[in-house]
Amino acid sequence: MGYKSLAECVADLEAHGHLLRIKEEVDPYLEMAAIHLKVYEQKGPALFFENVKGSPFPAVSNLFGTLERSKFMFRDSLPNVEKLVSLRSDPVKAMKNPLGYAGAGLTALSALPMKQSLFKSVFRKTTISQLPQIVNWPMDGGPFVTMPQVYTEDADKPGIMNANLGMYRIQLAGNDYIKDKEIGLHYQIHRGIGIHQSKANAKGLPLKVSIFVGGPPSHPLAAVMPLPEGLSEMTFAGALGNRRFRYFYDEEGFCMSADADFIITGTVYPHETKPEGPFGDHLGYYSLTHPFPLMKVHHVYHREDAIWSFTVVGRPPQEDTSFGALIHEITGSALPKEIHGLKEVNAVDAAGVHPLLFAIGSERYTPYLKGRRPQEILTIANHILGKNQLSLAKYLFIAAREDNEQLDTHDIGIFLQHILSRIDLTRDLHFHTQTTIDTLDYSGEGLNSGSKVVFAAAGEVQRELRAEIPVGFTLPEPFTACAMVMPGVMAITAPAYVSAAAAGQEIELFDQHLKSQSLEGIALMVWCDDAAFTAENINNFVWVTFTRSNPATDISGIDAFIKDKHWGCRGPLIIDARKKPHHAPELIMDKQVEQNLKRFNL
């Protein structure tokens, strides 16, 4: 049977050795986050904070900190849920194997949301300032809700079956928010809530918003799931949790999750915004202060045994990495079924997810010709970049399955070497300029604005990648050091970035200096602030390279050219991944807070 509440889940985890209680008073300003980060890094247990300074409510974090613990929480329901998602993505499966998928239909039917009569007696009222005021990073603009389930309905088709449940961060205080009366609602482009707000705005109506915190663990997971069309988050939550999503409406018409630990109700009026942020985010940098929707608080409710649920995001891997692993476990091959010819896709977590995608597709357009070149995989790449959240990617590397049946998008080093050994740098880079990228990515020209590039490789090996620095290789001043990241890839310590004009002059200098040198076997050079750090491990390399560069402005190459509006280069590719003045600052933990953790003996 599924958990009826977050308290039941906490008790179950504790009984099986998956949870650590912290009895001492803990400061929600930086200290709770620091404890979470340290325990997560050690692949440790879920954390229950009994005594949160300044709040009457306990808190829990790291529930999803390992894939093993996530599977434990959903041990009774995962197999049927995986079948349900697979069936929604490919209904033909049920016709081919009706007995094997019989349980999936029953799972969906038994998981439909359950409306109840007024259930308000379970809830008591409180205020925003009584909630745990958790601040994760030193430059954060205030306390945030980091594990919310934000519920909105469609103004044209009201009701729970057309509703959206998403996880969008909530700023509880700070900036210009009026204490206990206003909070900030941050959501990125391509989110369901945006459609609902647009429809409400068109009608001149305020958007009713219900924010749920806590509840059975299936509820927050449902809020982040990329679900197939026609499968609602509330139905999925019921299926995964082995317990139907129970809800009712209060006297003001707000939907209330009967199993939530906390509920904040409020309204967002058309075009009303206030500055929100900064916030330490999952790319490993702060998202900065920008105007985002203002939510006017109506009521704040809590259960008698309420537990505040939170997480900490930062440079990957973090708890949301484990979320991603569980999502992949559940959805499996759902996306490839939606895109014809796609075999595999991986949003690379170490690069912050949206900056970097790896994909494998079929290349079957001209089987009658001897040589293979990117054709079908370019069509697949365009489909990927037009697909929901994947459309926010900056870099897409796509390979042909026919070149290596064993190629795996999750093996970062091997996959990149496969691409770099086969790619024709004069032909196989395809740019998309002046387009949208992730809201949290500040490498582009402005908020939500930047460029994309597709690296497409199909056919025979074009170059043997060199593992060592070429004999006699020298750098022009003021470039100071270089190191091999992997075969074919070199990190180079460049002078501090000054301006686009200065970068252009540095490219000319670099190009002239290296044209006469033997660069055979080198496919990619990454300009960075610290070559040793960048080359230290594969995670550092992808994080630095793909979070600190905007393809259209930061990609260049040795002996570059433009022909018929197509850019290419005859020598190695260069990516300028230096920190730039318009980039957001990276996340750095407070040293004194780190020192204070010694008293917890973690």
Kindly summarize this structure in a few lines.
Helix content is 27%, strand content 25%. With 602 residues, the chain is of the alpha+beta class. The strands form 7 sheets. Strands 5, 6, 7, 8, 9, 10, 11, 14, 15 and 18 form a 10-stranded antiparallel sheet that branches. Strands 20-21-22-24-23 form a 5-stranded mixed sheet, with helices on both faces. Strands 25-26-27-31-28 form a 5-stranded mixed sheet.
Describe the protein's topology:
Layout: H1 6-15, E1 19-26, H2 31-41, E2 46-52, E3 59-61, H3 67-73, H4 78-89, H5 92-96, H6 102-110, E4 114-115, E5 123-126, E6 144-145, E7 148-152, E8 164-166, E9 170-171, E10 182-185, H7 192-202, E11 207-213, H8 218-224, H9 233-241, E12 246-249, E13 255-257, E14 262-268, E15 273-276, E16 279-280, E17 286-287, E18 290-303, E19 308-309, H10 319-331, H11 334-338, E20 342-347, E21 356-361, H12 376-384, E22 395-400, H13 412-422, E23 429-436, E24 449-457, E25 481-486, E26 489-493, H14 500-514, E27 524-528, H15 531-536, H16 538-547, H17 551-554, E28 555-557, E29 560-563, E30 566-569, E31 573-576, H18 591-596
Parallel strand pairs: 1-2, 3-19, 4-12, 21-22, 22-24, 26-27, 27-31
Antiparallel strand pairs: 2-3, 5-18, 6-9, 7-8, 7-11, 9-10, 10-18, 11-14, 12-13, 14-18, 15-18, 16-17, 20-21, 23-24, 25-26, 28-31, 29-30
